[in-house]
Amino acid sequence: MVKRKEYQVSLVSPGVLDENIHYGPFSRDWWETRSSRCTNTNNKTATPVLYPIRINMRTLVLLRNTQFIITIVKGHPGSLQQPGYICQAGDLTSAIFNNPSSAVTTLYQRLFDNNTKFSGPLIMGHDKIEISEQLLEGVNFRPFCCCIGKFWLFVY
Q1: Three-class SS string for the chain?
Q2: How far is CA 78 from CA 31, 32, 97, in A?
Q3: How far apart are CA 117 and CA 105, in angstroms?
């Protein structure tokens, strides 16, 4: 069994859903897949579960007694249609990155002058049920995905 590091993460702000972004042509970039176990079959296959990546969502994580706040924005230097991630700790702010891992890791390394790396989903609290439930509040339709042969189908 693989042990995962537990981080003290809290949701500062759930952010907002934008109909054009979360249900438009680039919506697949704004929903995150998490696996859960399907219990209605004998073989218990993994079923993907989607959660929104909300604009202006903010999480706080405590690392080495320092508060790191990760904010999701619309767009990053590589794509204006995908989520961007900014990390802030004290007076320091990272650039906009295309993933939370880079945003937190870059700022942490700058602050503490070491090579420690972090998993973005864990740092954002994506493994926390209470955060996931808050992100689903106000969601009228949840896109879903399935695998048909060798094709991954995203329905929004």
Answers
A1: CCCCCCCCEEEEECCECCHHHHCCCCHHHHEEEEEEECCCCCCCCEEEEEEECCECCEEEEEECCEEEEEEEEEEECCEEEEEEEEEEECCEECCCECCHHHHHHHHHHHHHCCCCCCCHHHHCCCCCHHHHHHHHCCCCCCCEEEEECCEEEEEC
A2: 18, 19, 9
A3: 5
Q: Which residue has the higher pLDDT, 111 or 34?
A: 111
Are 38 and 46 contacting, i.e. CB atoms less than 8 angstroms apart? yes
Q: CA–CA separation, 60 vs 106, rounded Å?
A: 16
User: CA-to-CA distance for 118 and 59, rounded, in angstroms?
Assistant: 15
Instruction: Classify 53 in phi/psi space as left (phi over 0), alpha (psi -120 to 50) or beta.
Output: beta
- How many angstroms separate the most distant Cα atoms in the chain? 53
Name 60's bridge partners. Answer: 10, 69
Whether the per-residue pLDDT at 25 is higher than 80: the answer is yes
Run of H or E residues at 106:
helix 100-112
Tell me the pLDDT tens digit for each residue of 33-90. 765 544 344 444 555 778 999 999 999 999 999 999 999 999 999 999 999 999 999 9
